[in-house]
Amino acid sequence: MNIRAPRAGAVPRRAIRLRPRAAQSVRKGNAMLHRMGDGISPVPRGRAGLPLAHRLTRWTLAAALALPAALTAGCGGGPAAPAGARPTAVVDASRLRLPLDRYLLSPDESALVARGYRVLLAECMDRFGLSGPPEPPRSEGPHTWGERRYGITDLALAAQAGYRVSTHPPVPVARPSANDDPRTLTALTGRGAPTVNGRPVPPGGCSDETDRRLRADAPTGADEYLAQRLDQDSYFRSERDPRVQKAAQAWSACMRGHGLRYPTPLSAPADPRFRNWPVSRLEITTATTDIACKRQTNLVGIWSGVEADLQRAGIAAHRDALEKVRLTNEAQLRVVSDLHLR
User: Fold this and answer.
1) Of 39, 48, 211, 300, which has the fewest Cβ atoms less than 10 A away?
2) Beta partners for 141?
3) Strand, helix or coil at 249?
4) Sequence ranges of the domains in the chain
């Protein structure tokens, strides 16, 4: 059995461990940015986004800047369990912490840095008499990366919202106008004319200038995607582990016992019947049964334990490089804190 995450839905992952999101599509090479919004959010995570402007060809894509430049961060992981030890039972995954979380921005931190990025970008664009990307509506979602990494575990929420992160439908995001102003794209990316409205465009445009401001005190030479790559790798390696496969099969058998047929824990939230609003009674029944079967089989405890061991090995092999990533995250958070956005 190969436990594959469903295609990306409304919002991340853990950004998988993926968010926000100028790339909310970043938390798995974009492969999976979390069905944070509708149920599952495996990996990647901890980065609000990329210097997207390097990939923009039209200002209409600037909405992608809803999440910014480079991020990555989090909390800590405990010591490895003794060989052969019984996996810890995990009921509430919101309390779950994996070792790489120390090097990944939390969802709330990612959202905060994304907001800071937009504020700094708007300041730069304002020098040219132009507007920056609009502020997207605040979205509801997990506050920790572990909350939905292995599927839902919040029984109270599932009893009301099924696989959704909220009882309220997501707020639609307005699309930017198709009437692109070439001056805006030039100021944003630094491509084209050397000046806009009589002012010199900074190297790489306002996008690169904003990145430089965010990382002004960050160490040089940091591999900003290292933690995400290790995080993604540990997720996919752990899902192939025989212990996780066995637990997933036990979960599937438990679901069948309740008349619900899903081959993997990630296939249930991807059920196309659960895409529309309002949330159906079937979705709520499926979601609450899903959680009951996770608890019965200790799927989350087994899976997270296997992955934690893999992450510890990755950290040991890249400790110095990961410390640079952690310091980069802290540097960006200091810059954002000076903007008083909270």
Assistant:
1) 211
2) none
3) helix
4) 24-77+91-148+159-337
